[in-house]
Specification:
single chain, mainly alpha, two-stranded antiparallel ribbon, sequence-specific DNA binding
Length: about 290
């Protein structure tokens, strides 16, 4: 009958509107889970893909949600940045409760999920995990050997200062490259799906296209460790990707990687502090042998 046909059309239009609404809400999320080195931006969180098999989620494209993430993560320093720059930061899955994920009953933390009102998950768990990361590196140094294979860490601060006066430490300009994110989710579900399942399927099955990464300021005059604009800078890496100075200590900072889009220089003051830190930690490790005599 015309009434039934009209009701069917209304239902179809309603479902289409819900899907459109979902897509709009989904686009406010910036969830990228690709095979590239990431580090968590939360204050006092030192997680990176080199030390933990955990997921990393880009800040939401929704401005209110993105700034809320930054504030909760203790990153008031990025609140004044433009949204396009804030969304380049990541939070790791350690900061979200289990009910924020698509499969809370399992250990799979690959996907954050939207609730029935399409609201964006909010991070609620924050703690200092520096010692956990240091302990992991000290106990399993072999896991990080491939990122630091040379013996430059044996240099003293004096030799580093001498090398700072050579031409080998001249700054090299880098140009931001385009990164292509390919994101594919496994096998599709059976064809007989409820509307809610269709929405979830639509949420999971999509591909990120090419993204042009740009930075507000040049990072060639900033120290990677203290974030200060200084002049007495030296390169962190050699051309082959190995750490140049203070290898042993920088191994404790696995989130620092060559060509990761962040400053690639370190000041001499920070190098001295790093060397002191490395010597102290090595002393702690050696002292443990006294208890084994």
């Amino acid at each position: 009958s015309p009434i039934v046909a009209s009701q069917n059309w209304i239902n179809i239009v309603f479902k289409l509107l819900k899907v459109i609404e979902f897509k709009i809400k989904r686009n406010n999320l910036n969830i990228i889970n690709v095979n590239m080195v990431k580090r968590c931006s939360a204050k006092n969180c030192y997680n990176s893909q080199l030390t933990h098999k955990i997921a990393y989620f880009g800040y939401p494209k929704n401005e209110i949600a993105a700034r809320k993430w930054a504030k909760l993560a203790g990153r008031e320093d990025i609140l004044n940045k433009k949204l396009d720059n804030i969304t380049k930061y990541y939070l790791c899955s350690d900061h979200f409760s289990s009910d924020a994920f698509s499969n809370p009953e399992t250990e799979d933390k690959s996907y954050l999920r939207l609730n029935k009102t399409f609201s964006i998950p909010i991070p609620t768990i924050f703690k200092d995990n520096l010692m956990e990361n240091v302990k992991s590196v000290v106990e399993h140094p072999e896991k990080f050997q491939k990122y630091s294979r040379n013996t430059a860490g044996d240099k003293t601060i004096k030799s580093i200062k001498r090398s700072n006066r050579t031409s080998s430490l001249k700054k090299s300009s880098t140009t931001p490259e385009k990164l292509k994110f390919n994101y594919n989710v496994g096998e599709k579900k059976p064809q007989e799906l409820t509307f809610e399942e269709e929405v979830v399927e639509e949420y999971l099955d999509y591909t990120y296209e090419e993204i042009d990464i740009k930075r507000e300021d040049s990072d060639e005059s900033y120290c990677r460790l203290c974030a200060k604009n200084v002049n007495n800078l030296t390169l962190i890496f050699q051309d082959d990707g190995d750490f140049y100075p203070c290898t042993d200590c920088l191994r404790l900072l696995p989130m620092i990687q060559k060509d990761d889009g962040l400053p690639q220089y370190v000041c001499m003051e920070c190098l001295e502090k790093l060397q002191s830190c490395a010597d102290t930690l090595n002393g702690f490790v050696l002292n443990q042998n006294l208890f084994c005599v």
